[in-house]
Amino acid sequence: MWSHNQCTPTQLRALEAEARYRGLITDGEALSPAVVARLQVEGDLSVVAAHAEWATKVRNADLLPGEQLAAFGGEPRANLSLAAEAWLQDRGLQVLYRGHPELAAGQPMLSDIASGAVNYRGRTGIDASRQLAADLTAFSGDASFPAWLRARMHLELGERAGMVPNRTAFLAQFGDVPVGGAGIPFSSSMSIAAGYAQRPGTRLYATLQNLGESIGPQNAWSRVWEHEFVRLHEMPHSQIIRSFEAGHVPGVLPPGS
């Protein structure tokens, strides 16, 4: 678990006032996770264009984390978002975003193996996704290894195979399989996820998840500004709290775009 700033009394009062102003609660009514998550999404929307511009500059400059602040200033965040994020994390929750092919009503988000987009040794579906994760965990001794691979290798190893532990043994066992296929990437940054929701047939999804359900932040390749988290296998549709049409939200174009 990474550390976070606890919600201060001043932030709490601001959240309550904003929720009452928006008609989300009445006088005397307590905040709920659903209400506070909605406030975070609204706060993130208010600065998403500025954040997309900032993150694009950081990405294109290819700077180390310590150099980003000096070159481009701090990451744009709304005070409303920071307060809501702290309140939610105090309660073991977080808002994560994902650009994803449009889902039907009630349809869960699935990993590539679970959805059938790729296969693991000829098998697809949830059980096959779990089998890959189990095999990777058994090899590494680390239950987070399947998420680590998804963040860095996506599906195939490619030229990055040299960075995996016990490379020769790993390639002998997993060299011909989609090693990241059990993971579903998310971001706590709206603009990063929105970059994957610009094409027709996609949507940007805001989700409310328990801390630890998605593993991260991954900080792959020192891209701390991506705020990437990886969930394994599936996420129920019930955890989606809002969605946006393709191209509606400014985003940072994915690497290679």
Task: Name its key features.
single chain, 257 residues, alpha+beta, 2 domains, 3-stranded antiparallel β-sheet, 8 strands, 40% helix, globular
Description:
The chain folds into two domains: 164 residues, no CATH class; 63 residues, no CATH class. The protein is built from nine helices and eight strands. It has a three-stranded antiparallel beta sheet. It is globular and about 60 Å long. The model has no long low-confidence stretch (mean pLDDT 91).
Low-confidence stretches: none
Query: Span from first to last CA?
Result: 33 Å
Q: Quote the beta fraction.
A: 15-25%
Shape: globular
Task: Write a compact overview of the structure shown.
This protein has 257 residues and is of the alpha+beta class. 40% of the residues lie in helices and 16% in strands.
Helices and strands in order, then pairings?
Layout: H1 9-21, H2 33-61, H3 65-72, H4 79-90, E1 93-101, E2 109-110, H5 112-115, H6 126-140, H7 145-153, H8 167-174, E3 183-187, H9 190-194, E4 202-210, E5 214-215, E6 228-232, E7 234-235, E8 240-245
Antiparallel strand pairs: 1-4, 2-7, 3-6, 4-8, 5-6
